[in-house]
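Lab channel / #folding
Pinned by the channel admin:
"Please post every new chain as: sequence first, then the structure tokens as a reply. Keep commentary short and put observations after the output so the thread stays searchable."

First post following the new format, from NK:
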Amino acid sequence: MKTSSATRVTETTFEGVPAVEISTAKAKMVIPTAFGPRIASFGRPRGRNLLFWDPKGIHRIGNFTIRGGHRIWMTRPMADETEETYAPDDAPVEVRSRGALVQVIGPEDPVRKLRRSLSIRALDDETFSVVSRIENRGQMLWSGGVWGITCTKPARGTRYGIPLGDGSGWDMFRIGLARQWADHKVRVADPQFTICEGAMVLDPQGRESKRFVEAPQGVIGMTDPGERLSFIKKVKFTPGASYPMSCNIAIFVAKKNLLVEMETMGAEKGLRPGESVESEEIWALRPPIDWTRVTPAKPVL
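Reply from TO:
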């Protein structure tokens, strides 16, 4: 594969499966090619994998193998988290590489006639562009949006934050809570979450819970004290656009701290045959952030 002077793109194996590695002097990302599209690993070149990854497929939902990492879900107007939003992605992906850009393209879903893909490029040594895309390959209309799910593995003392508001003269935002969905129930008064002046903060304590946030800054992140860094995701927020629960960011902590999902939602739209909807996330590794001291006046990314 081709390489650039600042970024290396190489074929490799990861946890026993073929993969592509994108590496810089300060960051490394691994994308499996035997199934997907997914991202399996992200972090420092010699650091721990910040993403939750289950190579043995122990954790499942019916026929769906959770695996972890980053994958593309789909938002559906008034039908979020239906079975189709986590349709299996177990087939090999097509890989296209040009310089520092890597694209992994999944096969067309035979029932829904949708095709998912990831386009990834290193912007600098510590910052990546991750574009998730859904294409309508059928003959009928489809509507929805991109739901970027990044499963992280919290270490001891890992803290998560979502900056609130934009610091403007009309600084408003929403926080959404699903008290119960399917067989999941969460506490409203959950001590894992703290609403600070500038951010909603999560300190995982092993209890299943979830929150949605209308976040104008479009930022969600984690700080790992052991790695001495923060992993931040940023997505564009479009005021007035359609989002699940009117929110563009969500965070989910699983039982026993198995994983914490940092979720972003792109604006929903209707797709004619051949059209696609996409959402770009900026992934960044930065010095440790104290989420309790974040303010809208000084964006974290």
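NK: Residues 8-293 form a domain with the Beta-galactosidase; Chain A, domain 5 fold (CATH 2.70.98.10).
TO: also worth noting, The mean pLDDT is 92.
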